[in-house]
Amino acid sequence: MAYSGQRDGMGPVFMLLIAAAIPAVGLGYLWRWADARVPEPKAKEAIVREPTLPPAMVTPVLSVRRAPQTLATTSSEGTLVTSLETMTPLINDASCLVVQLDGRTIYTKGGSTPVTPASNEKLITAAVALEVLGPDYTFTTKALGTVVDGVVTGDLYLLGGGDPLLSTAPYPPTVSPDPPTDVTSLEVIAFQMAVAGITRVNGNVIGDESRYDTERFVPTWSTTIQNHEAGPLGALMVNDATRQLGTDKRYAEPAVGAATDLIALLKGAGISVGGRAAAGVAPAETPEITAVTSVPLSTIVGEMLTTSDDNTAELLMKEMGYHVSGAPGTRQGGIDAIKGVLVTWGIDTTPLNVIDGSGLDSGDTVTCDLLMQVLQHAPLDGPVGAGLPVAGQSGTLQTLFVGSPVDGRLHAKTGTLNNAKALSGFVTTTAGSIVFSMLLAGPDIDATYQPVWDQLAAVLGPYPSGPPVDALQPR
């Protein structure tokens, strides 16, 4: 009876499972049937357009138009070289002209001919002085003496340091047409002594110029140069040794003149002086009271080039001699320094004859080729280049080339003697700088040089004159 009861209990459950399975099977079948009725998606067709090509270029692949900048430069250079040929008849056999572009000589006439450089000699003096002394070099003038209770008990010594621009305030305005600039004020000595509480100098005021020799003038200078263009020279000069401002009257002994000028300043500062002005040598170990220092050499060189300052050039020669050959500094020591440095620069000094540092001596000789090599060591972006006069703007070129093609762009050193006219330097352009040196010689050159200078400006000014780069692009 128990077994019969179990079979009866599973019957209803089995029937319910069958009843539930039938709809599920039907739904599965219907889903598969419906899925089979959905069409396969078609791939979207891409829209293809014909490409628009640029106009056909007519410039051949190997045409120079494929390098337009090179073509423009070459075209301008060719024009410049052709124009420079017009200078040839203007440069006599005793003169020279050399022009460089991008470090290459593109024109030369008489480049190896020795010519009197006049003040173009200062380019050599400036470049070598910067090499020997350094652009930051300064000159110091000292006041020495023993001070007790505000009194210099003995002599007061003014020790010269070779400063070529030592001046009093009233001096520069009296110099025409190119007054000295960046001067060292002698008033500083008197002012600082007064500030230190000094009220009296019992003894003399003695100028000490022992740093250099006492060669006042280059022996071969004419009397029209001495005391007028340059000198008397010494390691202690105030106001270029001028005795009466506004005139060519000079102190025969620059050191005595400097002491005289200092006495006047001391009295003006309320310091009495019991003695007189004299020249002498300060005893060793004399205490320093105060000092005044010049601007850096880079600025002094700029003053020399801009104003064509002859005394500055000559004192730089002696200072180079002092550093190369020892005390006292001499002109010959400076000459030796110049030749020695040029040799280290790889420059042949055979055609060079250096008599002074300013170029006042007509016996100085140099070649255009040599000056061009010096300018390579004294580029436009250095102290020498920065100190050059600018056409129509500054220094000895302020009134020259005004309105010409090189106005404001020609940076050059001028030079003038009775038998020489010189111009060397740079012309800035949108394609770099042109470097040139032109030394003209002849008995009447001062009367005939102007057309030559004007023609040089007309030739160099328009560069680069070729077609613009845009016009040379491939097409």
Question: How are the elements arranged and paired?
Answer:
Layout (H helix, E strand, L loop, with lengths): L1 H36 L30 H17 L11 E6 L2 E6 L11 H13 L6 E5 L2 E2 L2 E2 L3 E4 L6 E2 L16 E2 L1 H9 L4 E2 L3 E4 L45 H15 L3 E2 L3 E3 L8 E6 L3 H11 L2 H16 L5 H14 L23 H9 L6 H5 L22 E8 L2 E10 L2 E10 L3 H16 L15
Outline:
This protein has 475 residues and is an alpha/beta fold. Helix content is 34%, strand content 16%. Strand 14 and strand 15 form a beta hairpin.
Walk me through the structure.
The protein is an alpha/beta fold and 475 residues long. The chain has 2 domains: 231 residues, Beta-lactamase (3-Layer(aba) Sandwich); 156 residues, D-tyrosyl-trna(Tyr) Deacylase, Chain: A. 34% of the residues lie in helices and 16% in strands. It has a 5-stranded antiparallel beta sheet, with helices on both faces. It has a 5-stranded mixed beta sheet with strand order 12-10-6-3-13. Strands 4-5-9-11 form a 4-stranded mixed beta sheet, covered by helices on one side. α3 packs across α8. The N and C termini lie far apart (114 Å).
Number of helices: 11
Helix content: 25-40%
Mean pLDDT equals: 88
Kindly, what is the distance between the CA atoms of the first and last residues, rounded to a whole number of angstroms? 114 Å
CATH superfamily of the largest domain: DD-peptidase/beta-lactamase superfamily
| CATH class category of the largest domain | Alpha Beta
Q: Uncertain regions: pLDDT < 50 for 5+ in a row?
A: 1-31, 41-46
What form results from the Cα inertia axes? elongated
Write down the CATH topology of the largest domain. Answer: Beta-lactamase
**Beta strand count:** 16
CATH architecture of the largest domain: 3-Layer(aba) Sandwich
Strand order of the largest sheet: 2-1-16-15-14
Name the beta content range.
Answer: 15-25%
How many structural domains in the coordinates? Answer: 2
Secondary-structure element order, as H and E? HHEEHEEEEEEHEEHEEEHHHHHEEEH
Task: Return the structural class.
Answer: alpha/beta
Largest sheet: 5 strands, antiparallel
What is the gyration radius calculated from CA atoms? 43 Å
